[in-house]
Amino acid sequence: MAKRGETGRQAAYKKRKPWVRLLEFARRRCNDQDPESKNYAHYFEKGIECHLTLGELEVIWKRDNAHLLTRPSLDRKDANEHYTYENCRVVEWLINVQLPHGGPNPFAEDSMAEFT
To answer: How many domains does the chain have?
Structure first.
């Protein structure tokens, strides 16, 4: 079933390519210029930008086996840096919301493997 404002064709596309949704969310967070929004202080005000392309996110999705996750979430390894291919990975949402977001992620690539 399509969400409000979304055609059936768009919904089917997102089902076939679920990484599209993650890219939309990242871009929305970075471009939110409403000072009342919770995203504003964490993204727009800090100058965090989304430099990911759809193709890059597809590679990240497949590299990180995101299809195996219950609720995939796009994580920036260093929360002070932009959304780039080198700085992003897909992890379980529940793990992502528990990670510290004030600087470089204390979890090394290898230690995250048990969560993804």
So the answer is: 1
The answer to whether residue 3 is domain-embedded is: no
Q: Residue 116 pLDDT > 50, yes or no?
A: no
φ, ψ at 73 (rounded to 5°): -140, 140
Report the distance separating Cα 20 and Cα 54, nearest Å.
7
Is 33 contained in some domain?
Answer: yes
Q: Indicate yes or no: pTM above 0.90.
A: no
**53 part of a folded domain:** yes
DSSP symbols for 61-94 = HHHTTGGG-SSEEEEESBTTS-B-TTTEEEEEHH
**Half-sphere exposure of 75 toward its Cβ, with a 13 Å CA cutoff?**
31
Domain that holds residue 42: 8-112
Mean pLDDT score of the chain: 83
- Contact present, 103 and 44 (Cβ < 8 Å): no
